[in-house]
Write a structure and sequence with these properties.
Length: about 110
């Protein structure tokens, strides 16, 4: 009778096997300890230009003029943006800015308010 091992946390392969105290995925080569909590790896950490950790619902201020595609206007430096939402993407902040609507910003161009 074979033991059931959990799927690989990186590629979700079901062909994992045990090697000493670790579990190994033969498809992607990922090795992990099944007794450690993987919740810490799944948490999205986004930092502003000063290294402060941002969270959903925070308010931020832009630190430079940011051009907006499709409009001749730009978001001016010092614009306060409230109630941000963090996403796992290149532009990792989604928000609504008065006069522009829904936007995506890069966290390196904002600071926590």
């Amino acid at each position: 009778m074979m033991a059931e091992f959990p799927p690989c946390p990186q590629c979700t392969s079901t062909y994992t096997y045990e090697m000493d105290t670790l579990l190994v995925c033969p498809e992607c080569g990922h090795e992990w300890n099944p007794h450690e909590s993987s919740a810490a790896e799944d948490v999205l950490v986004v930092k502003d230009c000063n290294g402060n950790i941002l969270q959903n619902g925070d308010a931020v201020v832009t630190i430079k003029n940011l051009p907006v595609k499709g409009t001749p206007q730009s978001v001016k430096a010092g614009t306060k943006v409230r109630n941000i939402r963090l996403v796992d993407s290149d532009h990792n902040i989604e928000c609504k800015i008065d006069g522009f609507g829904a936007m995506a910003l890069k966290s390196e161009f904002v600071k926590k308010a």
